[in-house]
Amino acid sequence: MKKILTVAAAGLMMMGATTTAMADAGEKTFKMACFACHGTGAAGAPKFGDKAAWGPRIKKGKATLYQHALHGFKGKSGTMPAKGGRTDLSDADVKAAVDYMVAHGQ
Ligand code: HEC
Question: pLDDT per residue over 44-63, tens digit each?
Answer without folding.
Answer: 999 999 999 999 999 999 99
